[in-house]
Amino acid sequence: MTLNIGETKYQTLLTKKFSNRKAYVPHDAKKIYSHIPGTVVTVLAEPGEKLEPGDAVVILDAMKMMNRVILPDGGTIKTIFVREGESIPRGHLIADLK
Asked: What is the value of pTM for the model shown?
């Protein structure tokens, strides 16, 4: 691989770690993921419900603290993928928007 910095060309090799890295996937604003692991205490939205920016979708219990998962942008709930009492990991898909 050749890098051009200013007018100088540098020759370099890619490491195995770089070659095997996970491919970048752009953020999909239509999918709501959990940012922390926890237990779903309450599901506040249901499929077909129209929500505004800042509305909560679920409440997660993480380390005895209740955390609201909110929508950054408004939208209509297409599918809810979690149930009350379910323990979910970080990065788990919570809901899909239309």
From this structure: 0.73
Provide the phi-psi class of 89: left if phi over 0, else alpha when psi is between -120 and 50, else beta.
Answer: beta
* β-bridge partners, 39: 61, 87
Tokens at 67, concatenated? 């955390």
- What pLDDT is recorded for position 65? 94
As given in the structure block, the two tokens for residue 56 are 């909560």
Which segments of 1-98 are extended strands (E)? 2-5, 8-11, 31-33, 38-43, 50-51, 56-62, 65-70, 75-80, 87-88, 93-97
Token digits for 94? 């919570």
* Chain Cα centroid distance, residue 82: 14
Strand pairing of 31-33 and 65-70? Answer: unpaired
Task: Quick: pLDDT tens for 1-49.
Answer: 888 989 899 988 888 998 899 888 888 889 999 999 999 999 999 999 9
Please state the length of the chain: 98
Residue type, 32: I
